[in-house]
């Protein structure tokens, strides 16, 4: 199973150089890294990243995150994945660009079912 992190490309480039991702400013403020499931991505993008360009989608293998990954209620009681700790980049399956479409919405890559 995979979870997804939407991230500014520059911040992700910094993480790749450091070989670890400690989180975006909102993650650092909240004390955990926010992730979304594939089903939650469109709403996450619309609510938190509307109109933002130069983003990447980071696909992370949940089996490699261990007990630091917690599923906690958020919007409307839906369970969202939160990582309490830094993201070791060996858990990353792929990184994909998130371009904006003509309608101003992000174009998601094909995700595993």
What features would you describe in this structure?
This protein is an alpha+beta fold and 113 residues long. It has one domain: ADP-ribosylation fold (Alpha-Beta Barrel), CATH 3.20.170.20. Helices cover 21% and strands 32% of the residues. It has three helices and eight strands. It has helices at 9-18, 25-30, 41-48; strands at residues 2-8, 20-21, 33-34, 55-61, 69-73, 79-83, 87-88, 92-97. The strands form three sheets. A three-stranded antiparallel β-sheet has the order 1-4-8. A three-stranded antiparallel β-sheet has the order 3-6-5. Strands 2-7 form a two-stranded antiparallel ribbon. β5 (69-73) and β6 form a beta hairpin. It is globular, with a radius of gyration of 13 Å. The model has no long low-confidence stretch (mean pLDDT 95).
Q: Please report the number of helical segments.
A: 3
Supply the helix-strand structural class.
Answer: alpha+beta
CATH architecture label name: Alpha-Beta Barrel
CATH topology: ADP-ribosylation fold
User: How do the helices and strands follow one another from N- to C-terminus?
Assistant: EHEHEHEEEEE
- CATH C-level class is Alpha Beta
Provide mean pLDDT, rounded: 95
The CATH superfamily name is Protein of unknown function DUF952
Which runs of at least 5 residues are low in confidence (pLDDT < 50)?
A: none
What oligomeric state do the depicted chains represent?
single chain
Instruction: Report the C-alpha radius of gyration, rounded.
Output: 13 Å
User: How many strands, which pairing sense, and closed or not: the largest β-sheet?
Assistant: 3 strands, antiparallel
The proportion of strand residues reads: 25-35%
What level of helicity do the residues show?
Answer: 10-25%
Q: How many individual β-strands?
A: 8
- End-to-end Cα distance: 9 Å
Major β-sheet strand ordering: 1-4-8
Question: What is the number of independent domains?
Answer: 1
């Amino acid at each position: 199973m995979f979870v997804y992190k939407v991230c500014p490309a520059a911040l992700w480039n910094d993480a790749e150089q450091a070989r670890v991702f400690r989180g975006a400013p909102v993650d650092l403020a909240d004390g955990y890294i926010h992730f979304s499931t594939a089903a939650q991505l469109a709403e996450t993008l619309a609510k938190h990243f509307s109109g933002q360009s130069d983003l990447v989608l980071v696909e992370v293998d949940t089996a490699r995150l261990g007990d630091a990954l917690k599923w906690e209620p958020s919007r409307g009681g839906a369970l969202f994945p939160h990582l309490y700790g830094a993201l070791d980049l060996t858990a990353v399956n792929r990184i994909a660009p998130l371009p904006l479409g003509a309608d101003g919405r992000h174009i998601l890559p094909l995700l595993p079912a």
